[in-house]
């Protein structure tokens, strides 16, 4: 029932989150005693602060109240931003992780660390082991941002900035000629 309920609530919540100027990262509905727990995770390119979470919470709450027939029971709303341990599963996640150090576990092969550059349509540019390479999203089994306590080396940032177009972007340029 909660998964079915989440799929019915998703367009309502997504519209409210978008209206507030954010992206809906995930939506979960869980049974919590007699109540439903509606957990909404929001994100944006500029990050999400506490004031923005409160604003989104009010907007989503109003939308849920307007559509109370969908929930048909009492609910608790929890609005939050994604944690640092959120896997990078969409292009926008990679785009928002630009210049961050990421642990990449490929579908085939061993895990490695790389610094994220430009996120194209099909691949992301990564600096790993001193070399720039394009990593196709479909070849990644898991990717998670690593915590760093110091600034990244300036030469890494320069390498990623100097050559920011990914292979899939170059392919598009060739196709348009």
From TrEMBL:
Main location: cytoplasm
Pfam families: RimP_N
UniProt-listed GO biological process terms: ribosomal small subunit assembly; translation
Domain Ribosome maturation factor RimP N-terminal: 12-85
Swiss-Prot/TrEMBL keywords: Cytoplasm, Ribosome biogenesis
One GO cellular component, as annotated: cytosol
Cellular localization per UniProt: Cytoplasm
Region (Disordered): 155-177
UniProt similarity note: Belongs to the RimP family.
Function according to Swiss-Prot or TrEMBL: Required for maturation of 30S ribosomal subunits.
NCBIfam families (alphabetical): PRK00092.2-2
Protein name: Ribosome maturation factor RimP
Record organism: Amycolatopsis rubida
Gene for this chain: rimP
């Amino acid at each position: 029932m909660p998964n079915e309920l989440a799929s019915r609530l998703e367009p309502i919540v997504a519209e409210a989150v978008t209206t507030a100027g954010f992206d809906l990262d995930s939506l979960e509905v869980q049974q919590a005693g007699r109540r439903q727990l509606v957990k909404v995770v929001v994100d944006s390119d500029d990050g999400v602060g506490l004031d923005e979470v409160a604003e989104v919470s009010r907007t989503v709450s109003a939308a849920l109240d307007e559509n109370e027939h969908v929930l048909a029971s009492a609910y608790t709303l929890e609005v939050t931003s994604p944690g640092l341990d959120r896997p990078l599963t969409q292009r926008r996640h990679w785009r928002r992780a630009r210049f961050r150090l990421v642990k990449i576990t490929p579908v085939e092969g061993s895990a490695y660390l790389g610094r994220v550059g430009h996120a194209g349509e099909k691949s992301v540019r990564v600096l790993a082991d001193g070399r720039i390479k394009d990593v196709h999203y479909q070849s990644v089994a898991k990717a998670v941002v690593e915590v760093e306590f110091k600034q990244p080396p300036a030469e890494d940032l320069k390498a990623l900035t100097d050559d920011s177009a990914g292979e899939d972007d170059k392919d598009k340029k060739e196709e348009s000629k």
